[in-house]
Design a protein that fits this description.
The complex is a heterodimer. Chain A has 2 helices and no strands. Chain A is rod-shaped, with a radius of gyration of 19 Å. The longest helix of chain B has 34 residues. Chain B is globular, with a radius of gyration of 21 Å. Classes of the chains: A mainly alpha, B mainly alpha.
Chain lengths: 70, 444
């Protein structure tokens, strides 16, 4: 789970870099590197974060979260 | 969550019906599932509000059919998170805000998701529903031969919506069925009324299909703003929460997940895109051609009316449009009550004063008849929403993938996760653009 949290944070950073770069690129053609790095980071994070946890369930029990009808 | 519980026998009968439907031919399976559906329609009625319809009217009047593709893309992205809510309801069988509080903290659960993301939004946004609804009644009634100004007709609007709000969950299943049935009927009314107007106005089919499948955006920052806002705005925190808790109220369980997904597609996705397409089409065929660009919903409606021709079509348009704020008010009020109870850990009892007060809180919107929304509050809520919706999305994504929460029922699909993450990325973009605007870093 910690990896996923970090992944979400880095995805956010990548989004911010891409948008920051896009602002400069639209305005005066600058900051292309920001766009490319931001997009690359975003894409990497999305592809990694999309991987589901397929490891076999050992002795984990589904935790109690409150029943439907309590 | 307790309402007047749906009786166990009713639930068993419904599960039996669902099992029998699996072996039926497709048409029978469709109609059978449609009869059982409900929370999806509740959600689309909630989502199809003053803001969404105003955006559709403006889009049609300003850009014609060109931005229609945005709707199925934005709602299409939204259904991945909705499917997550269905998983929490049907297989998790837990109250998601309570689980958020447990695993991610009360700031994310009770505060961001419940109190701000759902309850505060319901109260503030209901101003717009009252403003629109009372305007529409005031405009419709002269066509029927009498006058009913806003200063008085707000009582009718409040009466109808309050009756429906307070009926939900009472007297076993019938209270839920009444409200769900009303929402379904209202969606049908919107489709019929707007559809009739569109037939009258006519459709430029070439432009229609081009707008549906060929991506187009206005150039520059307007296009970027439109894409991000539209993509992220179709389905949000309130929709996620409302679908989850109305599913819990129906006592949906493991046997219902396919039904829940059907409800998402047929009850939420299709009505949302179809109603929007009809409204865009009506305005594309009228105001767009004439180059008329009013800005608010009442102005747009008033500009449209003379162009619709005979009185009956004008009446139909107003009736279809009136269904919009009524159903949104009912949906948001129920969402408000559910969220407040979850935020404070109160047991939900629809016969309690707590429930009634929480559910009727958004009726403060009646003040819109005389006063505009307090701007400072709108800005504050807007700021908080812009900066926190994405965090709520992160929380739900994490819960869906957390084996402590869902065990073997956690997400096992790459595509599902990717869909959710794309929506989260768009929500991130909204937060980032908000901050950039405040810092003066956004495009001038």
């Amino acid at each position: 789970m910690k990896k996923r949290v970090f992944g979400l944070v880095f995805n956010f950073i990548g989004n911010a870099m891409a948008i920051y770069g896009a602002v400069g690129f639209i305005q005066d053609g600058s900051r292309l590197a920001w766009v490319l790095i931001g997009l690359a980071l975003t894409l990497f994070c999305l592809l990694m974060l999309a991987k589901p946890d397929m490891a076999p369930d050992d002795d984990y029990l589904k935790s109690e979260g409150g029943g439907n009808n309590d | 969550m307790k309402f007047d519980l749906i009786p166990e026998d009713d639930l068993k009968a419904e599960i039996q019906t669902l099992e029998q439907l699996q072996s039926c031919p497709l048409p029978k399976r469709f109609w059978g599932s449609l009869k059982i559906s409900g929370p999806g329609f509740m959600d689309s009625a909630l989502t199809l509000g003053a803001g969404t319809l105003t955006a559709a009217m403006l889009s049609g009047a300003t850009f014609g059919y060109k931005t229609m593709w945005l709707l199925w893309v934005s709602m299409g992205l939204g259904i991945f998170m909705m499917a997550a809510m269905a998983r929490f309801t049907c297989r998790g069988a837990f109250r998601v805000i309570a689980v958020q509080n447990r695993y991610h903290g009360w700031i994310i659960g009770s505060l961001m998701t419940a109190l701000v993301g759902t309850a505060a939004v319901a109260v503030i946004f209901n101003y717009a529903q009252y403003s629109l609804g009372t305007h529409l009644i005031e405009s419709l009634t002269p066509l029927m031969g009498f006058s009913f100004p806003r200063q008085y007709n707000w009582l009718l609007f409040m009466g109808i919506t309050s009756f429906l709000i307070l009926s939900y969950g009472r007297k076993g299943r019938s209270g839920i069925a009444l409200v769900e049935g009303f929402m379904k009927l209202s969606i049908g009314l919107m489709l019929f009324c707007f559809g009739a107007c569109l037939i009258l106005v006519g459709i430029d089919w070439r432009a229609f299909f081009k707008g549906l499948f060929v991506p187009w955006l206005p150039s520059g920052v307007a296009g970027l703003d439109l894409f991000i806002a539209s993509s992220a705005a179709a389905v949000g925190v309130m929709d996620w929460v409302f679908f989850h808790y109305t599913g819990l109220a129906r006592r949906w369980g493991r046997h219902h997940e396919s039904q829940a997904r059907f409800d998402i597609i047929v009850g939420l996705f299709l009505p949302f895109v179809l109603v929007n397409y009809l409204v865009i089409g009506v305005f594309a065929g009228t105001l767009y051609k004439q180059g008329i660009y009013p800005e608010t919903a009442p102005e747009l409606a008033q500009a449209l009316i003379p162009l619709l021709g005979p009185t009956w079509s004008q009446v139909l348009f107003y009736i279809g449009f009136l269904a919009v704020p009524i159903t949104t008010t009912v949906g948001m009020s129920l969402a408000c009550a559910m969220a407040i109870h979850e935020a404070f850990g109160w047991k939900t009892d629809v016969n309690s004063w707590r429930w009634r007060v929480s559910a009727l809180l958004p009726q403060l919107g009646f003040l819109a008849v005389w006063y505009p929304r307090p701007i400072w509050l709108v800005i504050m809520i807007g700021a908080f929403l812009s900066l926190t919706n994405n965090v709520v999305g992160w929380s739900f994504y994490l819960l869906l993938n957390d084996r402590r929460v869902l065990g073997k029922d956690r997400c096992q699909s790459y595509l599902w996760n990717l869909g959710i993450l794309l929506q989260i990325t768009l929500l991130n973009a909204i937060a980032i653009i908000y901050v950039f605007n405040r810092l003066g870093w956004w495009i001038k």
